[in-house]
């Protein structure tokens, strides 16, 4: 037996609110409701290579030692040539051989520094310094060899009198040849720097 109809209490006689039809349940064709994410999207940065950042090529330490070795060898060869021929050399021949030795020393040092040091500026600078020192010591060693040829007594007297006699001979002993002495240093350093730069710029 059905219940009798009871009037609904509606104070103010407001119109009834229509009921919304039931929608389909979630997961059965209804579009999912998108919820705002808690964080804004982050920018994407480029990925690094598989081995991290690339390192600069070249070995400045190895370039220095190889350049030093080449300078020593070239200087000893030059000193040996002077020792073997000093009795037949004129003053102009001494100057020409000295400048030529500075050029060869710088070229040998520069080639090795460029091959090993590649584009490293520090390696090029060290090569220029080593080549200039090689030109200087090549001449002073030649003076020592020539003095020793006169006998150990003469060599001992030179060492006791003034150990800077070979360096003073390189400077010209107060004469007018000191510009040529400086020219040899400049030639050696410039040749080493220039050749190291030319060879090293093609290396990776």
Short recap of the structure:
This protein is mainly α and 204 residues long. The protein has 6 helices and no strands. The termini are far apart.
Report on the structure:
The chain is mainly alpha-helical and 204 residues long. It has helices at 60-85, 91-117, 121-149, 152-161, 165-171, 178-200. It starts with 59 loop residues before the first helix and ends with a helix. The mean pLDDT is 81.
Features:
mainly alpha; 6 helices; 204 residues
Main sheet properties: none
Spans with pLDDT under 50 lasting ≥5 residues? none
The pLDDT mean sits at 81
Query: Per the principal axes of the C-alpha atoms, what is the gross shape?
Result: elongated
| Count of individual helical segments | 6
Which sequence of SSEs, written as H and E, runs from N to C?
Answer: HHHHHH
| Secondary structure: number of strands | 0
Q: Which structural class do you get from the secondary structure elements?
A: mainly alpha
Please tell me how large the radius of gyration is. Answer: 44 Å
Helical percentage:
55-70%
C-alpha termini separation: 101 Å
Strand fraction band?
A: under 5%
Give a topology summary.
Blueprint: H1 60-85, H2 91-117, H3 121-149, H4 152-161, H5 165-171, H6 178-200
